[in-house]
């Protein structure tokens, strides 16, 4: 649509998506499936331009597991960290590469196919250079978003989805930083580093990836960073150092010249001598001196401490400090502010992924990682493919009145529903402690509604965000690691690190399902004041399903039985299944039938009649003893007896008259 404001023509769309990387394409897919009016703006000539350059050494660290021993497609996504969500089976990443750690060029090709095969509406070669607001009471959110591209074309949108990722390199300025090469431009040819001494600034995967590439040809490599090394197997955070890149740790600890140092990079200074060698000194040595005056007039740390660690000069210094979000294109009216502390590289957003400063502006993909930074997988494809779907569902409810998808079941299916999800759901598994399944109980707990993968950070707003009601209590199903198991300083390989008995399930360390029960929906205040490190407020009851070495929670005694008893205790009911004979017995011996029997009788599933059962009922005085006779009082022939027996065998004895007799007896 085209509209004009103050003489300026705007191309209008309900939804504008900035960035055609994985998150932008994933959002476009869901918008297209819902039949919404949207457009994706991409500054490059093809999708996934970040992957055309990064990682520089072209090996992804997202796993691409070909075989799991199972054919369940949802389960297999737990071990496929590259595929986007779609209905098209051709667009599974394992069809593009058999490598466990795929080549980055394969990701570029995959994203191109994803956009073209699904016919997503992407406008390439369009760099959005400015975003501002236009107040309008008729707009969905009280304002429109006005976007301007590099050709001064203008666009107007009701809702803005930002999926630009973090692509601006982090740079530390200190005296001599002009001598530093950036990860984005440094040579990837190991031969260029032959016989050189290299200092790397940074301690993430890009730093270790760079070191791994030149490890065999350099004199030695030193690595400096403010924080200590964090190993992903200890922190259980996939953004920390992965084993595929950690060769330098071997050569450091086995004393093969390479080494790691901790220090604040802003306190450093680099001085270049006449031979082009780079010397590391400290900033305070240069406070009263001109760095261009020459190295002979500058005090170096080794002049005072002759065993200073970095006293040897370096041939090259490489900066590998990661990236940050580009705030420059957003007008001040949008109040797009950076986070604080270790999430300052991300924009401030709510747990619903909506900007804290502007209603209707949602941040998707890597740039939304502040919600679960260093906790879960929201900064990576195998995490944000699910959070993007969650945002789409929130928008569908807010703007189009489409409630969050749910399925209603009788309460007898409660245990089975939970067991099925914890054993195959990929969104719960990848976005542990962030996305949860919500079970809304119906009145008298006779049935329930099942909502999948809802962001628990906005649990208090569930009724308004989903269009579903929760007046009778709810269960929250979530995956968690043990409280004190993860951390850079933790030994995760200690003896007895796992528990195997159901009674010790609450001490489980590895990823396992946890079920929270609330008699009413938690309030925003309770969410704010929840215990430290708890994803949710203190529940009325909580159940841990004991961790499992195979991540297969189907053991009848260890997994299913304790879960069923927990659910029964919360609901004061019996969730077992019974044979028809048992239900028939309960009808005479209990005042309240188990739900399974009640629902079975409602479906006309009763006990099959027989001559023995009829005779027993007659003897008990529950049925009148009728015998088929002719009008003279004589019994009919045996053939009629056989017909009568056949009738009794085929006849279902309904529960209603029997229940009536029981009630009458009680009276």
Automatic annotation (TrEMBL):
Domain of life: Eukaryota
Cofactor: FAD
Keywords: Endoplasmic reticulum, FAD, Flavoprotein, Glycoprotein, Oxidoreductase, Signal
GO-annotated molecular function: flavin adenine dinucleotide binding; monooxygenase activity
InterPro entries given in the database record: Auxin_biosynth/cation_transpt, FAD/NAD-bd_sf
Signal peptide range in chain numbering: none
Classification via Gene3D superfamilies: FAD/NAD(P)-binding domain
Pfam families cross-referenced by the UniProt entry: Pyr_redox_3
Keyword Protein biosynthesis in annotation: no
Role this protein plays: Probable flavoprotein which may function in endoplasmic reticulum associated degradation (ERAD). May bind non-native proteins in the endoplasmic reticulum and target them to the ubiquitination machinery for subsequent degradation.
SUBUNIT field: Interacts with SEL1L. May interact with OS9 and DNAJC10. Interacts with TXNDC16.
Official protein name in the record: FAD-dependent oxidoreductase domain-containing protein 2
Organism of derivation: Piprites chloris (Wing-barred manakin)
């Amino acid at each position: 649509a085209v509209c004009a404001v103050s003489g300026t023509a705007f191309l209008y769309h309900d939804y504008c998506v900035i960035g055609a990387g994985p998150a932008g394409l994933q959002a476009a897919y869901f918008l297209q499936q819902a039949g919404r009016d949207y457009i994706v703006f991409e500054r490059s000539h093809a999708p996934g331009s970040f992957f055309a350059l990064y990682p520089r050494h072209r090996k992804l660290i997202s796993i691409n597991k070909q075989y799991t021993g199972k054919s369940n497609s949802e389960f297999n996504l737990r071990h496929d960290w590259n595929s986007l969500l779609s209905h098209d089976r051709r667009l599974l990443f394992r069809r593009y590469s058999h490598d466990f750690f795929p080549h980055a060029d394969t990701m570029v090709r995959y994203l191109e196919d994803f956009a073209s095969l699904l016919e997503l509406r992407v406008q390439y070669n369009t760099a959005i250079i400015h975003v501002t607001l236009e107040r309008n009471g008729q707009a969905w959110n009280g304002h429109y978003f006005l976007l301007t591209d590099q050709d001064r074309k203008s666009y107007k949108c009701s809702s803005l989805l930002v999926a630009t990722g973090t692509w601006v390199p982090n740079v530390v300025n200190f005296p001599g930083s002009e001598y530093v090469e950036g990860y984005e431009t440094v040579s990837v040819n190991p031969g260029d580093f032959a016989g050189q001494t290299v200092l790397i600034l940074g301690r993430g995967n890009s730093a270790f990836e760079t070191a791994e590439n030149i490890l065999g040809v350099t004199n030695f490599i030193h690595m400096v960073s403010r924080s200590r090394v964090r190993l992903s197997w200890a922190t259980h955070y996939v953004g920390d150092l992965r084993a595929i890149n950690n060769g330098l740790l071997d050569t450091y600890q086995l004393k093969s010249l390479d080494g790691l140092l901790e220090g604040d990079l802003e306190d450093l200074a680099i001085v270049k001598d006449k031979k082009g060698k780079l010397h590391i000194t400290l900033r305070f040595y240069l406070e009263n001196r001109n760095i261009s005056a020459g190295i002979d007039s500058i005090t170096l740390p080794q002049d005072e401490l002759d065993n200073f660690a970095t006293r040897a000069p370096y041939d090259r210094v490489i900066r590998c400090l990661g990236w940050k979000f580009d705030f420059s294109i957003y007008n001040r009216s949008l109040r797009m502010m950076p986070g604080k502390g270790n999430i300052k590289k991300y924009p401030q957003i709510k747990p619903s992924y909506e900007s804290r400063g502007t209603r209707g502006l949602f941040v998707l993909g890597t740039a939304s990682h502040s919600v679960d930074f260093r906790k879960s997988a929201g900064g990576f494809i195998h995490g944000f493919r699910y959070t993007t779907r969650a945002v789409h569902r929130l928008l569908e409810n807010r703007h189009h009145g489409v409630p969050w998808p749910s399925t209603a079941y009788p309460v007898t299916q409660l245990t089975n529903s939970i067991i099925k999800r914890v054993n195959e759901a990929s969104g719960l598994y990848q976005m542990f402690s962030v996305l949860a399944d919500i079970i809304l109980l119906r009145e008298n707990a006779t049935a329930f509604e099942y909502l999948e993968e809802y962001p628990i950070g906005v649990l208090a707003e569930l009724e308004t965000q989903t269009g579903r009601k929760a007046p009778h209590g709810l269960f929250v199903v979530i995956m968690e690691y043990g409280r004190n198991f993860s951390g850079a300083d933790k030994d995760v390989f200690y003896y007895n690190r796992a528990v195997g008995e159901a009674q010790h399930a609450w001490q489980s360390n590895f990823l396992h399902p946890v079920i929270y029960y609330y008699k009413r929906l938690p309030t925003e205040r309770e969410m704010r004041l929840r215990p430290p490190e708890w994803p949710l407020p203190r529940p009325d009851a909580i159940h841990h399903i004991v961790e499992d070495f195979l991540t297969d929670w189907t053991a009848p005694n260890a997994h299913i039985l304790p879960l069923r008893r927990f659910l029964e205790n919360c609901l004061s009911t019996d969730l077992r299944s019974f044979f028809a004979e048992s239900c028939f017995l309960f009808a005479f011996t209990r005042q309240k039938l188990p739900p399974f029997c009640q629902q079975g009788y409602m479906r006309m599933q009763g006990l099959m009649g027989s001559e023995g059962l009829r005779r027993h009922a007659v003897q008990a005085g529950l049925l009148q003893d009728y015998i088929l006779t002719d009008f003279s009082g004589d019994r009919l022939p045996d053939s009629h007896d056989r017909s009568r027996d056949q009738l009794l065998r085929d006849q279902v004895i309904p529960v209603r008259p029997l229940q009536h007799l029981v009630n009458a007896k009680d009276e």
